[in-house]
Amino acid sequence: MLFDIVTIFPEFFASPLGEGVLHRAIGGGLVKVRPVDLREYTTDRHRTTDDRPYGGGEGMVMKPEPIAGALTALQQEVPPGRVILLSPRGRLFRQEVARELAAEPRLILVCGRYEGVDERIREHWVDLELSVGDYVLSGGEVAALAVVDAVSRLLPGVLGCAASSARDSFSDGLLEHPQYTRPSVFGPWPVPEVLLSGDHARIARWRREQSLRLTLERRPELLAGAPLTGSDVAYLRGLGWEAE
Ligand code: SAH
Hints:
This protein has 244 residues and is α/β, with parallel strands linked by helices. The protein has 8 helices and 9 strands. The longest helix has 19 residues, at 200-218. The protein is elongated. The model has no long low-confidence stretch (mean pLDDT 96). The chain binds S-adenosyl-L-homocysteine. Residues 86-89, 111-113, 115-117, 131-133, 135-137, 139-140, 143 line the site of S-adenosyl-L-homocysteine (SAH).
C-alpha cells in the first residue's frame, strides 16, 4: 500500500517511520510512505504556501495552487489515490474507518497548517476529510501519521502475529481486556489468579468479561454496536447495563 503525504514538513516523518512496526513494514515492502514537499509545487521565489485570509482575521491560510499542483502531479501516477484532508471538521477516524481505508491501494494525505486550507481544495480535490479527534493540532502531520500507522497494521503481514490486530481494542467492538506479564507478583500486586490457572476456557471467559466490564465503564456507547452473545448480555445486565 502506498501513502503519499503532502506537507510543508517532509522531514517530520523520518523518525516515526524509522522505528518499530512501520519501519519493518516499509523495509519488507508491504507499505511505502512518500512525504511530498509542498514547496516543490510553488512557483514564486519565496516558495510561498500560505497567505492572509480573505475577510480578515488572525493567522494564515494555505494557498490552493501548490496543493492543487501537487495533487495533479500525484494523480498522474497509477493507481490514483484517494485524497484525504486531515481536518478537525472531518469524519472521526475510528477503527472501522481504518479497516475501510486498508482496502485501498493508495492514499494521498494532505496536511494543513496555520488556520487550515483554502476551502476550494476541500470542495474540488478532496475525497474524504478525516479528524483524529475533537482537539486542534498545529498541523495535519501528526494526524496523518496516526492514519498511516493504524491502517498499516491492518495490512496482511505487517504485524508479526497474524491474529494480533484481530484481538485489539475495537476490533470486536469492545475495549481490550487488561494484560499482564512476569513477574507474577510485582510489589504487593499479584497477577489475577485465573491467568496462571492454565484453564483456557476460564481465561477466555475472564478476558471477555473484563472487556465487557471495561467497555461498560468507559465507553458504554460502544456496546450498542458490538456483537454480543446471550451470555455477554446476561453478564452486562448483572453489572446494571440496560440495553435500549
Ligand atoms: N482553524 C482550524 C484549525 C487549523 S489547525 C479549525 O479551527 O478548524 C491546522 C491544521 O492541523 C489543519 O488544517 C489540519 O490539517 C490539522 N489538524 C488540526 N487538528 C486536527 C484534527 N483533530 N484532526 C485532523 N487534522 C487536524
